Amino acid sequence: MENKTKKNNKPVLPLSSKGSDEFGTPKYAVDILLPYLKDFKIIWEPAKGKGLLTNHLRESGFNVIPTDDFFNKEMLDWDCIVTNPPFSLKDEFLRRCYELGKPFALLMPLTALEGITRQEMYKKFGIQIILPNRRINFLTPSGKKSSAYFVSAWFCFGLNLPKDLNFVELNTKHGIPPKPKGVGYPA
Predict the structure, then answer these.
(1) How far apart are CA 24 and CA 84, in angstroms?
(2) pLDDT for residue 80
(3) How many domains does the chain have?
């Protein structure tokens, strides 16, 4: 489907096969996950890109191991994976996370609920979702915010979320959101 926005008289196709897979994570997208990471001492960020997610986790008091080598390297000392994986590799990231058998949180388009392969993994291992009430404006390689033409959510395993489907308010003005009842941030 073509976007109605045109550039140089050519339609702009979101997420086309020639498009970029690099969507940087804004701080406010991470804020909704922070309360659920308090029990993890070391977080592995295996798709660090420009380091936006890593930097915000560190600013929030977490010890983070950032790499860009998720499939060829297994970190020996980590407690949880938190990443915004390349969207074109959703299946591969999910499969690897489940194989490793430790808690994870992957920021992916809501359409990652679709698909036979992913649904089989979700049925076999389980999945919990943190779904913001609005779209996330990711940062693009040009430094501009994306047009937010898709809905994203945190796909989680092993974080002991209160429900399988958790609706949260997304505060697009950076700042730590109110703590959910009974959940705290790291010291």
Answers:
(1) 8
(2) 97
(3) 1
